[in-house]
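hey m, so remember when u said the tokens were messed up on ur end? i reran from scratch. heres the input so u can diff it against urs
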Amino acid sequence: MAASTTRRRARFHDLTISQVRTLTEDAIEVSFTVPEELADDYSYAPGQYIALRATLEGEDVRRSYSICQAPVTGQLKVGIKRDLGGLFSTWAIENLKPGMQLSVMMPEGAFVSQSSETGAHSVAIAAGSGITPVIALIESALSADPRNRFSLVYSNRTAMETMFVDELADLKDRYPTRLALYHVLTRETRSSELLSGRLDEQKINEILQQLISPTDVNEWFICGPFDLVQMVRDTLAEHGVAADDIRFELFTTGRPEGLGGQSGRPVVVEAGQDVHTITFRLDGTSAIVMTPVHSNESILNAALRVRPDVPFACAGGVCGTCRATVVSGTVNMVENYALEPDELERGYVLTCQSIPTSEFVEINYDS
């Protein structure tokens, strides 16, 4: 069940949509055909994501979506749920059709199993569209070893808004004794009080006491909004779960004070201004760009002015696509929800969240 998370240079290719399937009133599943010559580029581990790119209202818009199936050669599937006011998700749900081509980034992400145990018990706690990477993890784990078990706590507002409900039921039919499903509904009353209402700290504690014993779990996966992920991580820590046994994924941070809106933000360098000078290496070539000290501009935003092919997807510190090493100089990384401790020790930063703090900064995207 363990998977490699070796990083590859994030590149986009145009892929053809083979199917668009309605999941709920506000969610679709989009399938892409991967041509044979790109099969290696689009190989992936369960739990990873792709970024989709389109030009909307004159803007280069990119959004990351998790792959919602166990690895299949020649095919990719993602689930897209409409975000309130979401430009890309609204456009996708209303416009994507079979036969269309879309720019798709090669798979990335570290929300994958790192367990090498046989007969492992994995647990996922997900909310809403957080099910998309989890369903791939469940299918892969249970098919990989007849002794593996998986438990899922899945929170939604109503049964009608539950993504992949039929697929989860099919998995339950296929693995009745090895898959435990606990659907929690926040706006509908279920027969069990434990599975009704908001998934807060009290309810998580009750679930850990009554349904899932932390001492019986090898690996945890948490996927959903920032507040839920942070609360569950803290609660598991209180129950003695080691941080190394917990994987988590955020679709958004839910924190408006972050730098997520910086990609594409117009910044003009005027004569006589105090500036930071950024040198960066990408695909074997170097470029230089200056950014005004007063602008507090991210390295990614500055780099995009001279190299539009600089890799990024979410621009919110969540996905890790824009990571690079600091060769010289200093930066302030405002947020980090993607880099692992060992990557930080090796000098990696998220350039979408990093602001220069020295006069000269040298960054390497090729490291």
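this time it looks ok to me. The longest strand covers residues 12-24. if urs says something different then somethings off w ur setup not the seq
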